[in-house]
Known about the structure:
By secondary structure, the protein is of the alpha+beta class.
Amino acid sequence: MKKVILGSVLAIAAVTSFSVNAAAVSVCSGGSAANPTYTFTAGTSFVKVAFTPKCSANVFLVGNEQGPTLFTVGSGSAKGRNRFAGSSVGGSVANIAPCTGGANDTCNATDATAAEAAAPTT
């Protein structure tokens, strides 16, 4: 019985350590190609070396360190029609869906956030 309880505690601890962090941050705000709005710092999560991403003009980019092995991103362009998402799970950045905001269905910050939420996590 003690082994079953210990096994359950270890399983819960493992799942908890890889739980999803809902703290997505806006990295690029869709403006000029100037400095981004966020710098990733080294810590105990996914990013091990601090860096400042370089943003292209008109890009909305959202990033989220969700644990030591998971990083998700979502993006869209103020001049584009589709939103994109990707993660460290594997594969590549992919077209998730058409954008829903702005004139002519161009992308906005909400589209980038929605794309990040749709990024693969398993």
